[in-house]
Give the backbone structure.
Amino acid sequence: MTSTYVHPFREGSKDERALLGGKGANLAEMTRLGLPVPPGFTITTDACRYYMHEGENPPELAAQVATALGEVERDLGRAFGDPADPLLVSVRSGAAMSMPGMLETVLNVGLNDETVRGLAERSGSERFAQDSYRRLLQMFGRTVQGIEGERFEEVMDRTKAERGVATDVELTAEDLRGVVEQFQRIIAEETGAPFPQDPREQLRQSIRAVFDSWNAPRAIIYRNAERISHEMGTAVTVCSMVFGNLDDRSATGVAFTRDPATGQGGVYGDFLVNAQGEDVVAGIRNTRSLPELGEVVPEVYAELTGIMETLEGHYRDLCDIEFTVESGHLWMLQTRVGKRTAAAAFRIATTLVDEGVIDEDEALRRVSGEQLTRLMFPRFDDHAERELVARGLNASPGAAVGEVVFDSESAITQQHEGVATILVRRETNPEDLGGMLAADGVLTSRGGKTSHAAVVARGLGKTCVCGAESLEVDEKNKVIRSGGEVIAREGDLLSIDGSTGEVFRGEVPVVPSEVAQYLAGEVDAEGGDVSDLVASVHRLMTVADRTRRLRVRANADTAEDAARARAMGAEGIGLVRTEHMFLGPRRKHVEDLVLAADDEERQAVLERLLPMQRDDFVGILEAMGTHPVTIRLLDPPLHEFLPDITDLSVKVARSEERGKKGSKRDRRVLAAVRRLHEQNPMLGLRGVRLGLTIPGLYGMQTRAILEAEAHVRRAGGEPHVEIMIPLVSSIRELLEIKRELDAVREEVVGEVGLDLDFRIGTMIELPRAALRADEIAEVAEFFSFGTNDLTQTTWGFSRDDVEAGFFFTYKDRGILLTSPFESIDQYGVGELVRIGAERGRRTNPRLKLGVCGEHGGDPDSIHFFHHVGLDYVSCSPFRVPVARLEAGRATL
Ligand code: ADP
Ligand code: MG
Ligand code: MG
């Protein structure tokens, strides 16, 4: 059985991204729409996966490529390798998920010492032919043969210097012929063999290089950062060449159907006359703004804007486009639904609803919780004193302050040390990816809004100012100058504003974003007097709230947190951690509790703690009104509240040295700390085990809760309390505790003369609890999945140790794509959640189910919890809006 690995552009559509890659699929789509696309074909991602697994191409690939190439030759009436009139092609990478600038592309494949003469004759331009040839040698040498790019750039720089010209367009045919000779020499030197003259051999090697680029280090880093699977592989698109470097009526450029930074409608983009391919993105020459193309080639400009309208109408979204003009003739080389900033995403989505292009559900689908998070970041204070030192392009929004670094490595080292940095480069290239990820902001002195730095930063949501041309970035001496004056040296602080393109010396203070203020309930969007960005956010939040089934609660330990959570739209508290109430000045009482010699002493300590706990609960219950509040009884091991064993030992030893006995209390505490010391506290005496071991502890907490409830009721409130028992693994534990709690309830009800009530429930955070959920649900009235501990106990690794330790290795080796503590491991830990939910509900169909781990605020996890049928998620107050939005999106 033979498989089809090669698809001509006229077969295929935009929906076949997985097979054809984004580039191939959209070229096919444009071909079907009748737009001017140079003929070509795409080799499928299947072929790449075959190659990755088998180490060689599928046997039928070569013949299929030859057939498809033959078709292109017939189409164009020109043959590959024909010395008189050669067909040239580009060999382009294209994965299903866009990975801008991460994979390889080789242009002008098919040129050699002979065909270059044919190209010169046919085009009438020797200069153009030599320029194309030197580009092939350069790209082939670098990407296919792995030769250091600098070796070629040096030759270009030297030649320009010798000729006394600033740009490569000023080099003559003669100059370029010299460059070609030198490039060939470099290749022969570096590889030990001359540049392959056989076009088919060039093609074969280029295809292989594109396959290989899938697993280049930078591509792996990018996929890890973007959580893209390493398994998918890239397609390879072979496209007949058109030439933007032919003459002065030729150009190459990039266009957007809307401003990707703000979402505003209009024509945006950059172009260069007499240039090819990557010149625009590489920031080699300063680009011109797209509307000026109308001055160079008016008919082409009109045609292009027409096509842009067609594409936006067809894709019903912002499109980004690569085009080339060859002697006044327009060619479309790429389109895709364009990356955009978070603000643009919200604005575009609601604008398209207003324009009747999409409905509100679709608009909600097109924004994300991650984007909303970005909009909540603070911005620079306009009123603060600040010294503007340069102005560049607002490439990717945000306010970043950090120490200046000039190379990726420094950014990465500083990140490990927790130091914020601004990566400053003349222009970035794909090798800078690691540094861009590590830095807090990126600043370049060259390149437009479509330069590498801008495109990658937008994709990563990283603050970026590019093309700050007044700055002279001296990477060698690690200094930035402007008009001769030193602006900053390595290690100096710089503030960059990616929303305005401004660069400031030193550290500029920040103020909250307007979106954050709106989400915190400080701005009323119904009033109408808000920015259009806040109006868009408000509108989509309303859609999400109307659509979602999951309720959103917050984790809050104090009345202030609870109030903040309420303002952000929390519909209850899913987790009050009572251990936070045992810290600070109250530590001493915990020590007393541990030191108590008998029941009587212990009871006395508990009675001292009682009123403090009660007051804490009153504040929280008041803040939450009638919304449910889930209070978890004491969870962590006691020694966490006691002094550090080493510190205390030293203190006792010191005073003994001085001949004194030291305080008696210190010695007693030390003995207790030693007694309580555990090898694996995480798996030791904590949670319900503590409640069962220290008589009266959980009873005291329950009494405090009930008395608080009574207090709030008397004041006219209607609190809704849920008491949650942590770390349960057996129904017997729960039964014992329930007996104690019920007794306390009866007592307190008798004392206060009010009908107090609470629900009693349990955390499901141990695998055994999930497996025995049917039994546990006989007693528990609700479950809250504690996915942090459930992750630790399911994987058998501790969060702190993993994240500080071998986790990096696991990520690098692709064993884990993301931390299971950030996003729930749906197949393992998630399976236990599913089992727990199912079995619990089998016993009690009305069992309330929630989740209170970090995962409650993570978009992917929220979608998962929606699908397994939980009732609510609980997350930190700050994440509540994100959770509301994603809970809405989960239903779509
Ligand atoms: P990337 O994914 O990095 O954008 P591309 O495959 O799109 O890589 O190609 C890099 C550059 O070369 C782009 O500017 C593209 O427009 C240009 N290019 C690709 N194929 C051709 C072609 N057949 N003719 C002219 N220019 C091309
Ligand atoms: Mg491209
Ligand atoms: Mg826990």
About this structure: Residues 635, 726, 765, 786, 788-789 surround magnesium ion (ligand 3) (CB under 6 Å). The radius of gyration is 33 Å. The chain has five domains: 46-58+70-240, 251-281+294-337, 399-494, 548-637+678-890, 643-677. The domain at 399-494 is CATH 3.50.30.10 (Glucose Oxidase; domain 1).
